[in-house]
């Protein structure tokens, strides 16, 4: 499959979609194993909610949530593990438990030590665009050219990362659906992934169950699979390398059919 699936495993009490479901380490392991069996190429563990309106927690609180989970998962799943964090202390502890990917919603801006650590350890890193901070980012977001401004942000972050000693090949770009974006911005981003691909790094789209996937019918997060798959279709067609999702099984099956249709069409056209 050309698009890799990153399975979401939140060990938070307050994430917008699955808060509280996977705080127990045994349940977290069972869910991680299930997602790998369903086709996840990596598992993303998060201990701090960054949903709109969320408040920052302490480093110790975040560690207390993610480390028991990582201890339980380590050695029991055979795909890479990612840590969704903005903090050096959490990333360092996670890497000591087998994590190889840092997924930073601040694009290495919030903690300068984290940038140094990623470079030193030669880790893969997701640089996500975010306008504002989680607590207030959806109060009044605005752009004159959302895609162009995000491209400029990515270019600046890539240059800064390389200047600090990092390699371009370590980076995955995430345009940050729902992180300081209006509905129309999210829609435009989804159909413009080719613009981000022009920057020469892999691109990831993370729209799973977010408000924009239920904006047209008002469905709650647990009922937003159809809208989530619509964004995934746009991601695949736009050349995304990764999609970050809650619903791994449905996503993998959807992508398999979509790619089979495209391949069959291409084969038929090649014969004519």
List keywords for this structure.
13% strand, TIM Barrel, eight-stranded parallel beta sheet, 272 residues, alpha/beta, 8 strands, 9 helices, globular
Folded structure, characterized:
- The protein is of the alpha/beta class and 272 residues long.
- The chain has a single domain (4-271), classed as Dihydropteroate synthase-like (TIM Barrel, Alpha-Beta Barrel).
- Helix content is 42%, strand content 13%.
- It is built from 9 helices and 8 strands.
- It has helices spanning 25-38, 59-73, 88-95, 112-121, 146-163, 183-190, 193-197, 225-237, 248-271; strands spanning 4-10, 42-46, 81-84, 101-104, 124-128, 171-174, 204-205, 242-245.
- Strands 6-5-4-3-2-1-8-7 form an 8-stranded parallel β-sheet.
- Helix 2 (59-73) packs parallel to helix 3 (88-95).
- The chain is globular, with a radius of gyration of 18 Å.
- The mean pLDDT is 93.
Whole-number tally of structural domains? 1
Low-pLDDT sequence parts = none
Count up the helices: 9
CATH architecture: Alpha-Beta Barrel
Please identify the top-level CATH class.
Alpha Beta
The dominant shape is globular
Query: What quaternary form is this?
Result: single chain
Q: If strands are numbered along the chain, what order do they take across the biggest sheet?
A: 6-5-4-3-2-1-8-7
């Amino acid at each position: 499959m050309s698009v890799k699936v990153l399975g979401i495993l939140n060990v938070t009490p307050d994430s917008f979609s699955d808060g509280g479901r996977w705080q127990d380490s045994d349940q977290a392991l069972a869910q991680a194993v299930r997602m790998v069996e369903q086709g996840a190429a990596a598992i993303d563990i998060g201990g701090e909610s960054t949903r709109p309106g969320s408040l920052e927690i302490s480093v110790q609180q975040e560690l207390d949530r993610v480390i028991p989970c990582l201890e339980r998962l380590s050695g029991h799943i055979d795909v890479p593990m990612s840590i969704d964090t903005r903090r050096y202390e959490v990333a360092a502890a996670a890497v000591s438990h087998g994590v190889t990917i840092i997924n930073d919603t601040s694009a290495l801006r919030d903690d300068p030590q984290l940038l140094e650590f990623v470079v030193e350890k030669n880790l893969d890193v997701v640089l996500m665009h975010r306008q504002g901070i989680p607590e207030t980012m959806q109060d009044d977001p605005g752009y004159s050219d959302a895609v162009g401004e995000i491209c400029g942000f990515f270019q600046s972050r890539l240059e800064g990362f390389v200047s600090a000693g990092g390699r371009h090949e370590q980076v995955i770009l995430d345009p940050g659906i729902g992180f300081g974006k209006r509905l129309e911005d999210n829609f435009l981003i989804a159909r413009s992934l080719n613009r981000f691909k022009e920057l020469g790094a892999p691109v990831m789209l993370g729209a799973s169950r977010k408000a924009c996937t239920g904006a047209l019918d008002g469905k709650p997060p647990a009922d937003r699979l159809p809208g989530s798959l619509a964004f995934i279709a746009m991601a695949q067609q736009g050349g995304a390398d990764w999609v970050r999702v809650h619903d791994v099984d449905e996503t993998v099956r959807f992508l398999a059919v979509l790619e089979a249709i495209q391949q069959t069409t291409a084969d038929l056209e090649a014969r004519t």
